[in-house]
Structure formats: C-alpha cells, structure tokens
Automatic annotation (TrEMBL):
Pfam families: URO-D. Gene3D superfamilies: 3.20.20.210. It is an enzyme of class 4 (lyase). It comes from Marinobacterium zhoushanense. The lineage of its organism: Bacteria, Pseudomonadati, Pseudomonadota, Gammaproteobacteria, Oceanospirillales. This is Uroporphyrinogen decarboxylase. Pathway: Porphyrin-containing compound metabolism; protoporphyrin-IX biosynthesis; coproporphyrinogen-III from 5-aminolevulinate: step 4/4. Catalyzes the decarboxylation of four acetate groups of uroporphyrinogen-III to yield coproporphyrinogen-III. Belongs to the uroporphyrinogen decarboxylase family.
Length: 354
C-alpha cells in the first residue's frame, strides 16, 4: 500500500487537525481546461471518455498538474447506474443527458435490474484502479454517485427537467412505485460505491442535485431516507483507515440538522447557506464542505481572494472544513482564476489552524 503523502482532505472530513484548509473543486476535471477539451476530442464524445479508463485517468489528473489541490475525484458521470440498468444514456447537443427508455410505470420499475457492478460498470471500477495507481499517494481519490432521488428524476423525466412534472406525479399519486424505484437505486448505489472503495476510492460523495426541488417532508421521505440507507450499507474502513462519506444536497441548507444525523461524515453546502451559520447548527457532528459561488471565479483575483477570506472567517478557527465551490466550476472560467482560488485557500487558511 502506497503511503498517502497529503491526507489533509481526509483528516478535515473526520474533523482531525490540519495545517491549512484542504480544497478541491467539483467538476475540477472539465471543460474550462483546454487540456481536457483536447482529450475529450481524442475520445470522440463524453461517454467514450468516461468509458475509457486510461483517458478517464488522464483527465482526472489534469487539474492536479495545474493546481495544488488536496484531492482528486474520479472522472465519470452520475448517470452510469441508470445506463447500466438498460435505459440507454446518450447526450443531446445543447440539451444534456437523455435516455432512450423512460421509467414511468410500476411495470417499468419492476423490469429494472440492479446492475452487476463488476460486469456492467467495470469501466468505472477499472478507472478507479488506474487513477489510484497513477496518483501514487499524491492525494486521496474521491469516488461518487448520484443520489437515488436525483437518478430517479432523470430516469422518470427522460433527461433534465425544470418542473419535475412526471416524477412528482409519481411521488404524489403512486408513492409505492416511487419507493420501489428508490429502493432499487439505493441498493445499486451502495454496491457501486462499495466497489469503488474496494478498487481504491478513499472517500465517497453522494450528489443529490435535485433534492432541493422537494418540500421538507418529501425530501426526508424520498431523498434523505434513501441516502441514509446507502450510508448505512457503505464500507466505512479500508486499507487501515476510515473512508469518509459526504452528502451534498443542492439547495438543501434548510435540512442540515437532519442530514447531520444521517451517519455521513460531512455535508456539502451550496452558496445559498452561510457556512458559519451551518457550523453553529450542526456543531461537531459532521464536517462541512463548500461553499463559494462558482461565479466568483469570473471576478478579478483580489475579489476571489476576498471571497475566500470571508468564507474562512465565517467558518472560523479549527478543523472540519473542506473548501470547495458551492457547485461545479463553470466551463467558461479562466483556468488562471481557479489557480488564484486554490492558492488563496491554502495561504489564507493557515492562521485558522494553530
């Protein structure tokens, strides 16, 4: 086992002392980087890139060559599980992900298989192994999945949605069908993340992109309950150390206290929640990750630094903070601005960790 040279990300997630606040960026391997665009062009299209372990490894490492990041995140897509269930994922130019088959009825749900991860998602597991080997202990590797609710929204809507008409109709009119779908997805996500952990992922994040579209009671019943089910089933120790789990519900700041009881080690925050207020609300139960508005990266360097300083000040002294954006980095951001952001976090946070 290769010794981890920089483990401050893992230590911060477990609220252990660190020398400065660790930082990584959601979508840090992505279209804002010219080298990523070149690799994607060589692959032919996005899914071909995801399904090629060597190229997925290449783009995962690209941001680490530019920036002093404290973690790498597996390059993949949240919709690999529905694709492995036979729904036929494809990407329409200008419209995002789409599925050839849509799940709308009880019979549709009953017909869905729980994927055999080693067989149906072998390219993801191979990419985890490839990346972990290439990192050679440089920084930890994050594995991830979409949450059951978020995966279900794409499967029922057939792609992205603004009003969630079809999935909310299923949720309110046929809740038993909705629960059957979510239970099947929770089982699949648990198996998927555990295989990532066994292949070398040293932390995992569950992306609940659309949980914030729900009312409070519906969020607890149809989103958080199934994420908790996943957390309960995860491998929590591997290679002699804890494997932290992060839950990230976009627009979920109103439910932090309940999320903190989920069993996860950390909660991701978007930019609509003040991180100092969040820390007061959850106490020492979980670490917090976030939460600068990605649009700040369009600003001049001094404005980026001042925003980093404000978030650090809001969180205050001590460990338990992983700095990140409040959502994925935008494709039109200047790569130099991302570098200003990363360097500012390390430089300005050191005084908070005496």
């Amino acid at each position: 086992m290769v010794e981890l040279k920089n483990d401050r990300f893992l230590r911060a997630l477990l609220r252990e002392p660190v020398d400065c606040t660790p930082v990584w960026m959601m979508r840090q391997a992505g279209r804002y980087l010219p080298e990523y665009r070149e690799t994607r062009a060589r692959a032919g299209d996005f899914m071909s890139l995801c399904m090629n372990p060597k190229l997925a490894c290449e783009v995962t490492l690209q941001p680490l060559e530019r920036y002093d990041l404290d973690a790498a995140i597996l390059f993949s897509d949240i919709l690999t599980i529905p694709d492995a269930m036979g729904l036929g994922l494809y990407f329409e130019a200008g419209e995002g992900p789409r599925f050839k088959k849509i799940v709308r009825t009880a019979d549709d749900v009953a017909a869905l298989p729980v994927p055999d991860v080693k067989r149906d998602l072998d390219y993801v597991i191979a990419a985890v192994r490839e990346i972990r080997s290439a990192l050679a202990g440089r920084v930890p590797l994050i594995g991830f999945s979409g949450s059951p609710w978020t995966l279900a929204t794409y499967m029922v809507e057939g792609g992205s949605s603004k009003d969630f008409r079809h999935i909310k109709e299923m949720m309110y009119a046929r809740p038993e069908v909705m629960h059957e779908l979510l239970a099947k997805l929770a089982d699949a996500v648990t198996l998927y993340l555990n295989e990532q952990i066994l292949a070398g992922a040293q932390a995992v994040q569950i992306f609940d992109t659309w949980g914030g579209a729900l009312s409070g009671p519906m969020y607890l019943e149809f989103s958080l309950a199934y994420m908790k089910r996943i957390v309960d089933g995860l491998i929590r120790e591997n290679e002699g150390r804890r494997v932290p789990c992060i839950l990230f519900t976009k627009n979920g700041g109103q439910w932090l206290e309940t999320m903190a009881d989920s069993g996860a080690d950390a909660l991701g925050l978007d930019w609509t929640t003040d991180i100092g207020d969040a820390r007061r609300r959850v106490g020492d139960r979980v670490a917090l990750q976030g939460n600068m508005d990605p649009s700040v990266l369009y600003a001049p360097a001094d404005r980026i630094r001042s925003e980093v300083a404000a978030i650090l000040q809001s969180f205050g002294p001590g460990t338990g903070h992983v700095f990140n954006l409040g959502h994925g980095i935008h494709q039109f951001v200047d790569p130099e601005s991302a570098g200003v952001f990363v360097d500012a976090v390390h430089e300005l946070s050191a005084s908070y960790h005496d």
